[in-house]
Design brief:
105 residues
Length: 105
């Protein structure tokens, strides 16, 4: 599974990891919303609809990942591997929550 790859990650891939973690969560959130019949207009709305299922700390970190992803995408900022690992650990933490939401709806 992806989470087992953590020790093998290289620094030059940190931006890709962060972006892909964010996109993975966003796509899952969008599928949850669509299953509920909700169509959102942007990333912020899509992610905001997860607030009731995540803790405040998780919601804030997810928004932080969104902001970091924007800096990577639009400003060309480079992120370090420690932050990339932190985002992967976060995905590992919330994946069961997201899976449970999908299975309930």
């Amino acid at each position: 599974m992806l989470f087992n790859l953590l020790p093998l990650l290289e620094k030059e891939y940190s931006n890709y990891i962060i972006e892909n973690v964010y996109y993975s969560i966003r796509e899952i959130a969008e599928s949850i919303n669509l299953k509920k019949g909700i169509k959102t207009e942007n990333h912020i709305e899509t992610i905001k609809l997860l607030e009731g299922s995540l803790t405040k700390k998780q919601t804030l970190f997810l928004d932080e990942i969104r902001q970091v992803r924007n800096k990577i995408k639009y400003e060309g900022k480079k992120q370090n591997m420690e932050y990339a690992k932190k985002t992967l650990e976060f995905l590992k933490e919330i994946y069961p929550i997201l899976t449970e939401i999908i299975n309930k709806n």
